[in-house]
Design goal:
The chain is globular and about 50 Å long. By secondary structure, the protein is mostly helical.
Length: 235
């Protein structure tokens, strides 16, 4: 006989997706992965030499380099697991991978990366240092709250807080980098780099948070897209 299995806390409340939306998901995740890969290739690879001579930041004391390396390594892990966390197919079909990559994002990525950033705050470039420290604290806090909401089974709140967490790190790292270097390379106006750095450290994550909140409110009535329900047992 066919036995119906009751939905678990990880069961989906949405059955099936239109093909167009699935194609949009694939495009979104691939775009995210490409941007992260390009950023890591340009900005991060010198630190994997483990040689202070290749530091892109002026070192203030011997331990400074290793704080940078710790921040870079944990930040890299956070960006890679961010892509996995944002992949709807993985969340629906392999929820255990989604959960473990989420734990890595929080405990091996966001928390240590934020801690290393705060440890370097006293010797950070003055322009934008407050914005950087603020984003680091908010990044860690939103990641931990998002993880706790998932543990509690409060998935709508988990989704909200994780979107905020992703918005902060994406704005601080990717858009902050793009704003700073984009202005220096392509702007026809000459502006003191101090102002550019200050703007880049604030604008990226604040604008991202505003957009993320707008999107969350706009999609608040959308059914949660969680793991697929377990298959029915046949006896």
């Amino acid at each position: 006989m066919v036995q119906n299995v009751q939905p678990t806390e990880t069961s989906t409340v949405r059955r099936g997706r239109p093909g167009g939306r699935r194609a949009g998901e694939t495009t979104w995740v691939l775009s995210l992965a490409v941007i992260v890969t390009l950023y890591l290739a340009v900005q991060v690879h010198p630190y994997f030499r483990m040689d202070p001579a290749y530091s892109r930041i002026d070192l203030q004391f011997p331990l400074h380099y290793w704080l940078i390396v710790g921040h870079v390594v944990s930040g890299t892990l956070a960006l890679v697991t961010l892509v996995l966390q944002a992949w709807p197919w993985l969340r629906r079909n392999h929820p255990s991978v989604h959960r473990w990559s989420g734990r890595l994002y929080v405990f091996a990525g966001a928390l240590p990366a934020a801690a290393f950033a705060l440890a370097m705050f006293p010797v950070a470039f003055a322009a934008g240092s407050i914005g950087m420290a603020t984003s680091a604290v908010l990044w860690a806090v939103t990641a931990v709250i998002g993880w706790r909401r998932a543990v509690q089974g409060r998935y709508a709140e988990h989704r909200r807080w994780m979107v905020y967490s992703f918005a902060i790190v994406w704005g601080s790292v990717i858009w902050g980098f793009a704003i700073g270097w984009g202005w220096l390379l392509f702007s026809p106006w000459t502006v003191d780099f101090t102002y550019i750095s200050e703007a880049a450290r604030w604008m990226g994550w604040i604008i991202n948070l505003i957009v993320a909140h707008w999107w969350l409110e706009r999609t608040a009535d959308r059914p949660l897209d969680l793991a697929r329900p377990p298959k029915r047992a046949v006896r």
